[in-house]
Specification:
By secondary structure, this protein is α/β, with parallel strands linked by helices. Helix content is about 35%, strand content about 25%. The chain contains ten helices and 13 strands. The strands form two sheets. A nine-stranded mixed sheet has the order 5-4-1-8-9-10-11-12-13, with helices on both faces. Strand 6 and strand 7 form a beta hairpin. Helix 2 crosses helix 8, helix 8 packs antiparallel against helix 9 and helix 9 packs across helix 10. The protein is globular. The chain starts with a strand and ends with a helix.
Length: about 325
């Protein structure tokens, strides 16, 4: 029996991660920022597969879910598409934009874990060219950070088609004002934000988390090492963070969490159980560098779940 198809609207990107073996604060003179001209020697450089749609699809696919990423890639994205295809992920909704580069993030980290990031959206800006109707039968969707027009249009298309979806604005949240955010919350079935984004969402809408939750089936707020909150049916469920074997890299942990959440929801799990699985996926990811460099079997994941929560997955 095939798993329900989940449409993942979001970015496909390349992440170039560099480590500066010093501290930015020692190189940037506060009284000279108006003529800033600095260079950082970065002996360590790593290139990773990234983007929210790619990372979420990777997590969901690992669990046995039927992930359908819907995204735009540039003329340099063929290798990424082939890799996803090789993992058994449906790539039919990945559109190539021949005169653009695939979205790319260039991240420089110092010894204090401060980061300076430059992001080139490239093909991601054309995400509105894809439509939900083109994807065929879909049981559940998510709108993750993507091109602004694409996020707005895909929300309307999910709602028009009667497909439940998760609104996951992420780093794209500052692009939207109060009317647009209220419209997203009106259309969405669920919303997922981290604690910083939750504060921004409240500030922009003038609503409390509890008030936002009344407009949704559930509001998910991830809180890093503090676990996550699920606001649903007038109550707050506290989901503990699963202790990681080691902490190697937080990049993509939120996406791994969302992969677990989508799997649980698409399989009809109660929201608490889906969120517990999501918490576990974030913990498993953080032990590895990069958003898609961890690999476990379904049996491994089930065993970790039983250890963490004292029940069978």
């Amino acid at each position: 029996m095939s798993s329900p198809r989940v449409l993942i609207c979001g970015s496909i990107a390349f992440d170039t991660i560099m480590v500066f073996e010093g501290r930015f604060k020692d190189q940037i003179l506060p009284d000279q920022v108006h003529i800033l001209n600095v260079a950082f020697l970065v002996p360590t450089l790593r290139k990773d597969w990234g983007g929210c749609a790619g990372n979420i699809a990777y997590s969901l696919n690992m669990l046995g879910g039927s992930a359908v990423p819907m995204a735009t890639v540039g003329h340099d994205g063929a290798g990424y598409v082939e890799r996803l295809k090789g993992l058994g992920i449906d790539t039919s909704m990945l559109r190539m934009v021949n005169d653009e580069f695939t979205a790319q993030a260039f991240i420089t980290t110092d010894l204090d874990d401060n980061q300076i990031t430059a992001f080139h959206p490239g093909a991601m800006s054309h995400s509105h060219l894809n439509t939900v109707a083109q994807a065929g039968p879909i049981a559940l969707g998510i709108i993750a950070p993507d091109g602004r027009d694409g996020m707005i249009q895909h929300a309307e298309q999910f709602a028009a088609a009667g497909i439940p979806f998760v609104f996951d604005p992420g780093q794209g949240l500052p692009m939207f004002g109060k009317p647009e955010l209220e419209r997203f919350l009106e259309l969405a079935t669920y919303a997922a934000v981290n604690d910083y984004e939750a504060k921004m969402l409240c500030d922009k809408t003038g609503l409390s988390l509890e008030q936002i939750a009344t407009r949704l089936k559930a509001l998910v707020v991830t809180r890093g090492a503090e676990g996550s909150w699920i606001f649903t049916e007038g109550q707050r469920l506290d989901i503990p963070c699963v202790k990681a074997e080691t902490i190697a890299d937080p990049t993509g942990c939120g996406d791994a969490y969302r992969g677990g959440l989508l799997y649980g929801l698409s399989q009809g799990m109660p929201i608490r159980k889906a969120a517990q699985l999501a918490s576990l996926m974030g913990s498993l990811k953080i032990a590895h560098k990069g958003g898609q460099n961890y690999r476990l079997t379904r049996e491994d994941i089930a065993a970790h779940y039983a250890t963490a929560f004292g029940e069978q997955l």
